[in-house]
Each structure stands twice: as C-alpha cells, then as structure tokens.
Amino acid sequence: MFKYIVRRLLQTIPVLIGVTVIVFLLMHLIPGDAAQVIVGEGAPKDQVEQIRENLGLNDPLPVQYFNYVGNLLKGDLGQSIRSNRPITEEIFTSRFWITFELAIYSTILAAFLGLTAGILSAVKKASPADYGVMFVALFGLSMPNFWLGLLLIQFFAVDLGWLRPSGWGSWSQNILPVLTLGTGGAAIIARMTRSSMIEVLNQDYIRTARAKGAKERIVIYRHALKNAMIPIVTVIGLEFGGFLGGAVLTETVFAINGVGRYVIASISARDYPVVQGTVLILSLMFVIVNLLVDISYRYFNKRIDLN
After folding, report:
1. This prediction's pTM
2. How far is CA 208 from CA 120, 220, 224, 260, in A?
3. How far apart are alpha carbons 258 and 7 in whole angstroms?
4. How far is the C-alpha of 201 from the C-alpha of 97, rounded, in Å?
5. What digits encode the pLDDT tens for the residues 15-25?
C-alpha cells in the first residue's frame, strides 16, 4: 500500500508540470495586458512599461516560466498583481475553505440522493418507479446549474422568503448553493448506481443468497451494493473534484466569495499569478481525491492489489 501511494504521488509530478505549462501559456497568449489593466486605459505608455518591467512581464516567456517554477519549488505561489498580497494568503485565508465546504456538502447530498434513487430504480427495474426516477435524473442532469440556482432563489428566497439568496456561512445561506451544485451530481450518481446495481443483481451469488433465505434488505445492501460500489465511488470522487473546480457559476449566482469567483475576477484583471496558483492547487486536490478513491477500492474488494 505504501509503495503504491508513493508511486502515485510521483506520477503526479509530470501532471502538475503539464498543468503549469498549459495554464502559463494560455494566460500569456490570450489578448490583453495586465499592466494596462492595473494603471487604467488612459495611462501614459511609459507608466505602463514601468509596471511591465516591475512585474517581469518584459522577460521572455521561458524566463518568466522558470522563475515561476523556481518560486513554486520554494512553496511560493507569488503575489497577486491586483492586491500585491501573497496568493497563498488570499486563497487559504477563507476562499479555499468556503469552496471546499461547498464541495463537501454538495458531494454528500449528491451521494445520498444518487445512491437512494439508483438503488430504488435498480430494485424496481422496468417499473413506474424506475421510469420516474430516471426521468427526474435526466431532468437534473440536463438542467444548467446557474438556471437552477436562479429558479431556487426566485422561489425560496424571493417568493417564500424562507432562505437567504446570497452569501455563505449560515444554514439559510448554504442550502440553496448546495442544492444547486449537488443536483447534477446526484443525477449522474443515480444513473451509475442503477447500471452497476442491475449488473450485480443478475450475478449467481445474489441468486444463491436469496435461495438461502437471506432477507432482501441484506441481499441488496450487504451483498449487491458493496460489490457495485467501485464504479459508483469513482463517480463520486470525480464529482467532488469537479465541484471543487467547477463551482464558478454557483459561486457567481449566489455571490459566494470562494475560489471560483476569485479566479473569474483574476482572469478579468489578467492577474496571471493568481490564476496559475489557483489552477495548480485545484489540480493537486483533484489528484489527491483520485488517489483516495483508488485506495478505497481495497475496502470494497479485497482482491484488488494496490502493491
């Protein structure tokens, strides 16, 4: 197990290098000038050039990239061009943990709803309950997050006045963003759970367990679900990673001061270091989540060898 974890961590190095190269090039090749954004459109050219020189933007791209990587190896993500504050401080003071909480709560909701709906649909295969669950799952999968968020705000916050329409912290603020982000994930998990459960329920050992007189609840949850969990856990892990990096629209709709909203503002301001540092952190989190998912396979199937 230890050797497997070390090997997987070493495999993340080229992935993270590739991420830094791609993001660095994309941010520097798209139109716009960070120095011009800082000083304003009407600023003199000599002032713009002075800002570019101070920020190192006049250096060749390879020089800028290797300077950036050198700072990364020291644990320094650099400073924000807009605020002139350390990026690590700006991200981890509050923004990252807000996005992390949103992703955790949304994953829990998506897993609970998706597993419940998927199991019901598989057990009641080809019944009205099955068709109803799959219709709702298709609806949830097709509904854009930002549109669902606006509908929830209109109904629960504006019309009924039960919940607060923006921000993050209290339960009245958290419910709507979690529902908005978790609904699409629940639909995906439900469809995967149904497919995996139907395949397992057709296996010989399930028929043997039933023939021995085992209660249907034990057959479904102890025998079938545990053996069907590997693809489901994979999807749940991917959904959590997607929630971390894909909460941009949800955070924007609900005015949540998380990482996604921070990145959008930084892209608009051409704040290269912030975008690069944030994408790198989220990529590392995604890799760690995938590693934890792979390790969890051993719990559900003892025959899987992770050495």
Report:
1. 0.84
2. 21, 13, 12, 50
3. 32
4. 40
5. 888 888 887 78
